[in-house]
Automatic annotation (TrEMBL):
Pfam families per UniProt: ABC_tran
GO MF annotations, alphabetized: ATP binding
Organism: Kibdelosporangium philippinense
Matching Gene3D superfamilies: P-loop containing nucleotide triphosphate hydrolases
Taxonomic lineage: Bacteria, Bacillati, Actinomycetota, Actinomycetes, Pseudonocardiales
Name of the protein described by the UniProt record: ABC transporter ATP-binding protein
Amino acid sequence: MADDLAVELVGITKRFPGVVANSDIHLRVRTSEVHAVCGENGAGKSTLMKILYGMLQPDEGTIKVNGEPVRFKNPSDAIKVGVGMVHQHFMLADNLSVLENIVLGAEGLYGIGAKARKKVAELAKRTGLNADLDVALEYLGVADRQRVEIVKVLYRGAKIVILDEPTAVLVPQEVDDLFETVRQMRDDGFTFIFISHKLDEVRAIADSITVIRRGTTVGTADPKTTSSRQLAEMMVGSELPSPETRESTVTDTAVLSVSGLRLSEPGSARAVLDDIDLVVHSGEVLGIAGVEGNGQTELVETIMGMRKGTGGTISLGGKDITKLGTLARREAGIGYIAEDRTRHGLLLTQPLWANRMLGYQTREPVSKGQWLDIAGAKKDTQRIVDEYDVRTPGIDVAAAALSGGNQQKLVVGRELSGDPKLLIASHPTRGVDVGAQALIWEHIRQARSAGLAVLLISADLDELIGLSDRIVVMLRGRLVSEEDPSTVTAEDLGCAMTGSAPREATK
Ligand SMILES: Nc1ncnc2c1ncn2[C@@H]1O[C@H](COP(=O)(O)OP(=O)(O)OP(=O)(O)O)[C@@H](O)[C@H]1O
């Protein structure tokens, strides 16, 4: 039984121009286990999973599913033999119902009538999806949307499910619930391949772990006997620095002041931003905690001038910037790490050095007078690549060729390079590995010690607690409470974020 393999990857190699993304990778996943795949940014995890799901074809190597060699031309080939993937970015339609989202594209299986509904209801029960099947998806929270994605792949017959960083968007209680579902389903015979950078979680859920580094398998680990630190060191191949203890550098100088900020959207009864007041001082990190969809994105985009508030004022360093456009706000001293780097942070088809210019095109070192300074941009891009350890074959490759974490390092490097007074950091380390996370935190801390004000939005509660000097909680468009990061726990924060009573109090 021990050698009953659901998936076996033998000697997988995949080359891209200038990079060997996977080099002779071996992976053995037993039937009915949760198998984690860990590795630092750019190690080759996504490439390997895309190969297993038929989105990419390997240059060398064999894929076996349930002992049989297979060759996938596309994801439908993979799903036919029971391999499904739940992507990190949900691929669902907001205006369709839960049922429609699941059945759409797979009408051939159970039709669109009662039989399909019955099957979906059965799978919803199995995965703990409690939502009404006829409600439009837009009314569902993040955790339920994720369950819809899971039901969608199960509906198509998946018995082997790849979960790509599934916990990145969840609060601790939701993570516990997801893990409970995964354990239950594993016991019912499903197999999971779990990709994550959060090593504590990997140890909590995985039955076995494969670590890959720089495109190749470095070994397997037993979660019961391997510590998070040992795992991290296997991934990075060297010892990690110990985290520093920190001292407060908060001053009395207000850098960002937001007063009475409101935002209403046409047709929506409730204000998206409801009377927001906040101040971030020089040398201070103000963290904003909140479940996705409670107004954080809109707050940031209104401060950046990408949305127009319906009331209130925003000032930077005492100057009213409420009426300025986005570029003028950036020029006034705001650095911006956008939540979605591929939509608002980078031009994926352009080389790294051209991406260095984005938002900075009017300033040195990427422009001189009214001309763009390409040599200056290239030189500074190389500096960022070196200082932020961006793994790339060179600065002339397109941003699309970098792994997600390395794209993020480039964005963070750029946004800290313009000598900002205020940094708005939305999920600054989303998708980056532990080594890169430590590096980005260190850069943010250093800039803060030198007087930078930081508005930090993060779904990673350890990051919020570890970096912030103060944390405010956002719920349904309002700031509802303030927490002290030196005493608050991730569980307390999770309760405040969902508006539920702390577990202690409900006893
Ligand atoms: N389409 C592509 N073209 C060129 N190079 C690519 C392409 N996709 C990935 N790569 C390269 O392959 C390597 C592995 O990338 P991959 O995305 O698999 O890493 P990863 O382990 O998933 O990283 P992360 O944790 O940052 O998402 C990286 O060096 C990346 O730059």
